[in-house]
Amino acid sequence: MQFKPDFVTKRGLLDHFFKVFAGYDIYVVADNVTEDSFQYLLTLVKDVDHIRRTKYGNCPGSFMFALQWMLSTSKDGNEKIYMSEDEFIYTPDSQKVL
Q: Looking at residue 89, what DSSP letter applies?
């Protein structure tokens, strides 16, 4: 039997991610999301240029898209890029560890 806290939902984890990493530039690849989910993501993302909606599905296509997108947004090639899935729980000091 698995223990799953109430906040462990897609939206709960996204809310938590945006809280833990507040102050950082966050880019979102919204792959195969519903219109409702996309509208919700738009409320979290500070800049509409930081979100892309795709339809790659469960394949390396969305990862490759995200990687190419991040490399194309790099200002000088020295930024640190962290790519995350929507299923991780972070401690409040995660940004220090990463």
A: -
